[in-house]
Amino acid sequence: QEYIKDFLEVTIPPVDPVCPGFFVSCQLGKQPNFPFTPCDVCAKEPFELVHSDLKSFEVKSYHCHKYIIVFYDNFTSMAWVQCL
Asked: Which residue has the higher pLDDT, 9 or 72?
């Protein structure tokens, strides 16, 4: 019985305290990128603070696009996506 208890402690990953029923390792394994850290700076007008991200794909799209670029306006919460 002690062996089984030790075995379970080693093989079962820790559970997320915020979302019971979800394993931390499963959540991290399904996230290819880590989320951005919260921004302390807030924009007071459109286009004052624009976030951008460039992502590549392993396989080209039907129209031979391999990259995608995203622009996100902090003030308006509008996002623009362009395939490259």
From this structure: 72
